[in-house]
Amino acid sequence: MSALAAIPSPTQAVWQLGPLPIRAYALCIIAGIVAAIWITERRWVARGGAPGDVLDIAVWAVPFGIVGGRLYHVVTSPRPYFGEDGDPLRAFAIWEGGLGIWGAIALGGVGAWIACRRRGIPLPAFGDAVAPGLLVAQAIGRLGNWFNNELYGRATDLPWALTVYRWDGTRAVVGPDGEPVVLGTFHPTFLYELLWDLAAAALVVWADRRFRLGHGRAFALYVASYCAGRLWIELLRTDPAETFAGVRLNVFTTVVVGLLAVAYLVWQRGRPREVLTRGRQTPDGPAAAAAVAGGAGETGETEPPGDDDRGRHAGG
Length: 316
What we know:
Blueprint: E1 14-17, E2 20-23, H1 24-46, H2 53-76, H3 79-82, H4 101-119, H5 123-147, E3 162-165, E4 182-186, H6 189-211, H7 217-234, E5 243-244, E6 247-248, H8 249-267, E7 275-277, E8 280-282, H9 286-294, H10 296-299
Antiparallel strand pairs: 1-2, 3-4, 5-6, 7-8
Helix pairs in contact: 1-2, 1-5, 2-4, 5-6, 5-7, 6-7, 7-8
């Protein structure tokens, strides 16, 4: 298949603005974080949370998540850092790319838990609000992999194959003819995951509206739906990664985490969505809901029970 007939890849991922390097990967990560905060803020306020809670929690969750994502990436792909000819100091070079989603969610969750505890906010309720925004952030972040010519799959000549160039870390290597050196055409696994993430975000929003998910069930659905896609996408990838019994470690992680998410959904089935007033949870039940709804005229931030209020949910 001709490279000209395939999806093109960027030939540059870093631009110099005077002494300041502008990195596409970092811009995509920042854009994803901003999108997630915006979506979550709308959903959180619609569910009864106080405006500003999300940004305050993000101050804790985002740094924790970045550190966790990098730790997971280094542990599951250690050869560039600790293998033969590896450079341990590159483990700190987050701007070069390499953030593992499971580490980001795990340690980011710790940061969110600390912030929620400080503000008296139930973490499961916040998790339900943030779930679709995380998927959108992940989708935007995958564009950074496209700029870096990384995380592609096996070679293919399908019509949507991705042209990948030989890469020197910041730009494509140029051959004697002055043209970028083409490695071949491959499965665009970054694009598969991007589209899957957006579809999963739509699923979570729909299910949240339809079934009024609460107590962490929307977050569990996010994890389960993401794992379902990540499993088959991971099996297409060819980038170096640690394996166990010949299978990529990420595959094992995806299966275990996905099954735990499904188990949580089953365990929590049938529970009514918690009623929040200024982000704080009140006891479940019609009496508690009626009491909170009766005070809605004062706070303007409660979520009455029932299905008639779906129209005012900005994000589900």
